[in-house]
Amino acid sequence: MSGFKLSEVLQAMLFACALAGILTGVLMQEMGFGLLIFLISFAHALVLGLPAFVLLSRAKKINVWTTVACGFLIGLIPVSVLNWDIKLLYLMFAGVGSVIAGLFWVCLPWLIARHDSLASIDARPARKA
């Protein structure tokens, strides 16, 4: 996947969806709603976001802007499928998708740096006593 390990991508998706769920729960003052947002957003990230990430990675077009644009489009899908006719809801879902994609892009480099630093610690020779 063009330099990204699947485990790092999945961890970044999990962190981004968890952060979105926590933020939503805190803002709505209802953590049960935040859990629902987490579950739905993680399902969307796995089913729709992961294939989009793989396709963009293979095309070498992956960056912050393409990730946020895909998150915006993926956020529109639940409203479009249910055929709700509320324009504000379209923008809200698309905005949540964009925020989650942005959080994903913030989490991914951090996880890669963390993984690299742990790998360099493991690669050091053991000290002789």
Supply database-style keywords.
129 residues, mainly alpha, 0% strand
Query: So what's the oligomer here?
Result: single chain
- Give the termini distance in whole angstroms: 42 Å
Number of strands: 0
User: Which class do the helix and strand fractions yield?
Assistant: mainly alpha
Which consecutive residue ranges, at least 5 long each, have pLDDT under 50?
A: none
Query: If you compute it from the alpha carbons, what radius of gyration comes out, rounded to the nearest whole angstrom?
Result: 17 Å
By DSSP (H or I, 4+ residues per run), the number of helices equals 4
Order of helices and strands: HHHH
Percent helix among the residues? over 70%
Give a quick account of the main beta sheet: strands, pairing sense, barrel closure: none
Shape: globular
Mean pLDDT: 77
The amount of beta strand, in percent, is under 5%
